[in-house]
Structure formats: structure tokens, C-alpha cells
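Figure S4 source data
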Amino acid sequence: MRPCDRVGCERFPCVDVNHTGYHIPAIELDPERVSIILISEAAPTHMVDGYYAEGSSLFAQTTMQAFNDAGVATTSIQDILDLGVYLTTAVKCSKTAYGIQTATIEQCSQILADEIALFPNVKAFLLMGDVAIKAVNSISRQAGLGRAIPAESTYKIRGQQYYFRGARLFPSYLQAGPAFFIEKSKRKMIAEDLAAALALAG
């Protein structure tokens, strides 16, 4: 199964993202084997930097570093997939500015909802950064379940237990892209969250 064959955007209504940077993972995988979904912010500005791009892409490098920090030796994205971890973004187009409008996150969360529904055995969601947290909260509200995670700073809500459709939610910090190299103070917390999700998924 390739997620890009099952879900997608047809109208492209969002005005603050680059539609030429639209991307949904085209990786071939068995949805039954996915136990963790890691959701980061947005598609990269350049597709060569994406999670599943060939070679040593930026998203791949920083994500592998995060898993290595968590005590899990990885040398490729395939190693992470083999752990039962699927990597995707909350917003499927690349950013045009530092931030992303709430309306865009909510619009794209409808695609994300369809995407995560492809995986029946998910035990944990790693929400890497504010955009991912907002997207899952939007999905939860659209399902009539209210906000899944409180509107608080990430450092205040980390480590507490939140759930969505029976799966544990881990609010964390963005691990993909150049910011990960800069904000080294957050690497320890990211590693703790990854390790906890992996332990839960077993």
C-alpha cells in the first residue's frame, strides 16, 4: 500500500503554502505493521529533503539522529520503518513563511485524518511540534471528541497521558529539518518521547 494512492488533496484551497511542494508519502509499506505514526510539521521546501527521498536527505538525517539519541541505532529511514514507525507531515505542502495559518492546518488535517485511518494497529502518535499537535486536535474536534491535547506550551504537557482513538499521543518538539541542529537543548526531550513511544508499542 502507498499512502499517496489512497489519500490526497483535490482543491488546494490553502493560500499560505506552496502547492508545488505538495507531497504525500509514496513509500510502499504494510499498514498492518505500523504501530507508531510520527507526524512532523510540513512537507520540505525541496523534495530531496523529504523523509523518503533517495540519498541522505535533511529530514532523514535529523530523524535518524533523534532515534540514535533515543538509543535506537538507525542508519536509514528503512531502519525506522522496520521498527513499525511511519513518518509523515501534518501539512502536505511546503511552507512559504515561518508559520502556518490555523485555517491551513485545519484544512490539511482532513487529509491527515484519512491518512492515519489507513493504519489499523497504531498504538502511539508522536506529534513533533505545534503544527502536528494542532492538526491532531483539529481531527479530534471534527470527530466530536473535543481537544485531545490541552492548549499549553509543550514543555508543560510533555510526559502526561493523552489518547486519541485508543492510541497514546506524545506531544513533542520538531525533529525534522535545520531547526533540529540549532535547538540542541530539546534533543534530550525528543529522545525521551521517542523512547517512550517505542517502549509502549513494544
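Figure S5 source data
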Amino acid sequence: MKTGFILAVFITCISFTSLAQTTFGIRGGVNFQNLNGKNEDGSKLSNKLKTGVNIGVTADIPVAAPDYFVQSGLLFSSKGAKIERPDIKVNVNYLEIPITFLYKPVLGKGRLLLGAGPYFGYAVGGKIGDDDISFDNDFKHFDAGGNLLFGYQFTQNFSAQLNAQLGLVNIGQNSEDEARVKNTGFGVSLGYHFSKL
């Protein structure tokens, strides 16, 4: 998983510096996240959605004119869940690199945004209730999964989008028995591109 994260960073950096037509932007919004999976006895986790934030910088890299791009960037994203028994909130903060293959056809005065691809995340902190997360005992640092994107980019270079994520990596430290914990959720965000359509 470390190799995948490093590879994602390398590809992103090379792409940013090598393509003159890359457009950069900023993005921010709200996450609705959960931790799904199984307990040690095989029963399903019964958590509730937790709200958080996602914010960062993005880049749309053209790969096939005029409508096909790779969208990537570096995002700060808070994830986790509300656990009913006991009544506590789990909050895990990640730095994420999405690599989204994006189709941007002209629609009206702007562009429709349709995309899918992987994401790679590295947890940088968080809390379980009032206690700091231990990455030796509670959660692993690395996360990865699939990302879906739907949205619209307006003529003023503003955009709005809905993202859905499905974690594919067991982020729990306890891998014994049938215990599994994975990030899932969706987010709504607004963005601004520093160039014309």
C-alpha cells in the first residue's frame, strides 16, 4: 500500500509539471462518512454517518482533447463514524490523492463532470471520543479505494460536484478473526478553477 501511495504522488507531480494545459483550482465541501465492515464475531458494524470536511487543491490534466481529463490533487478529508454503543464519535483525518478519469463534455454554458478512479489516503491524526487515535492499536495509516464523481463546471470557472467513495482496504489494526473496517461515504463540494473553460 505504501508503494501505491508513493506511485500516486509521483504520477501526480510529474503530470502537474509536464502538461502546460493543466488547469489548477481549489475545492472545499462537506463529507458524510461511515465505517463499515464486520466485528470480530462476523456481525456487521452498526455505525451512523458522521459529517466532516474536505478541502484542498486540484488539477485537471488533459489527456484527449477536448473532453477527457485526469483530475487529481491533494485533499484534506475528515472521515470516521458515529458509534452508538458506546455513544462516541470516531474522527480520522486523511491526506488524499484522488486519480479520477474525467469526462467533461460541453453542456449549456458549462461542462458536465463525470468521473471514476482510485484514491489513496494517508491518515495524519484523529480522535476516538476525547482520545487521540493510536495508529499502533486502532487504525492503519493507509487507505485506498474507488471514487465516483458527478458535477457541473460553470462558465465563471466555478464548479459543484458530488463524490462517492468506497474504501477497499481494511484500515483496522485488528486483522484477527473476521474483523474488518473500511471507509465509505460521499461528499458535496464547490470548486474554483484558475483558468477559463
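DSSP finds one helix and twelve strands in the chain. The radius of gyration is 18 Å.
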